[in-house]
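So, could you explain the following?
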Amino acid sequence: MSYSVMHNAINILLLIAATVLLAVGVIDTLNKLNARLLFRLVGNYVTFIIIGIGTMFHELSHALFCLVFHHKIIEVNLLSYDSHSKSLGYVNHQWDKTNFYQSAGNFFIGLAPLFSGLAVYFLGNELFGSLGVAVSNTDYSAGLNTSTDSYWHMISSILYAVYQGMIQLFALDNFKNIWFYPYVLFSITIAYAVAPSFSDLRSALPGSIALAVLVVLANIIMYAFNMDAAFLHSLIWSYTLIALNAMGMLISCSTGLIVILAIICIINKYMSNKNKQEGVNQSTT
């Protein structure tokens, strides 16, 4: 019993950790690179407008989950321009530390943009998919090893899901579809909304302990009453792979924007240096 319970609990926690780390470590990093390149090309105010929609959605997600877990909201700042601030928005909240439900809620509140952002992204995929954009590959699961008996199988399946998400948008028909380009802009906006910051991750840590306890207790109860814990675990595993596949698409769109912006920056720098050189040559004649 103890091995089965701990095995299932550890697998679920590892899946959650992999999803969170991918969002924080990769998507958030790409967002920051895009913001820096945008700032170089169009200035601070235009960059602020471009990422503002994602930021407002991000903070609204925190506020919504605060209400769900009965936290007291002290102050909400959806969006503000302050060059000296480390963030464009914030939600300050309080909770009863003796209340298990509210304590566990810190995990979901801290990662709320990830959950709500992916939900909106899936709805957007349905909309753009109906317009002919190839946003999903129904065969991608065929290459996945859905077994979680081996951690190597889990890792390879996670990497494959992300990889498939990254390459499936490069279908030739997508570039011929005019709706593909608004979809890319939509994806970039969602990328700014979905990625928890490192401060969000720190806020979620107190709730992660309560969540771990809850996962272990749930597995114990299901084992004790001969409930099908394998079915629940398989369901969580499948939805996690779908989420990771979506993150692969977000990574692909954000990376594509970085490449385009970097090329424009290089061209601008080259033209600027060329104009300066021509100005020097003219002044010496």
Observations:
- Confidence is low (pLDDT under 50) at residues 138-146.
